[in-house]
Amino acid sequence: MLENWRAKVKALKREVVAIALAARDPRTPWAARLLVLAIVAYAASPIDLIPDFIPVLGFLDELLLLPAALYLAIRMIPADAMADARVRAGNERLAPSRAAAAIIALIWLAIAAAGIYFAWGWFSA
Q1: Which domain holds residue 107?
Q2: Which label site among 19, 63, 100, 113 has the fewest CB atoms less than 10 Å from its CB?
Q3: Which DSSP string corresponds to 67-99?
């Protein structure tokens, strides 16, 4: 079962490479490009919601969040641009990005700070 999940995660990561290539295509609208940027930043970031080394649970974010975001992005990208990108994607991989990791870390810190701020206000009232 775990190997099946790993195979699905690998296929999802191939789709991420394909949408990254499709985002560079001039036929792709700007809204799709922004969504693809967010997806690729998360997929290329070494920081995950749930670390991958945790058995089974480590792949849940890739199996739940990425497919939903990919589905939306693929629907926004023209079919011919997506088909061309899938052909070009082949076996390429996204290299981990320190910039993407920093952006994801800042987003999580902002969410944590907002949670603490609102919790503090709730408990002090």
Answers
A1: 2-124
A2: 113
A3: HHHHHHHHHHS-HHHHHHHHHHHTT--PPP-HH
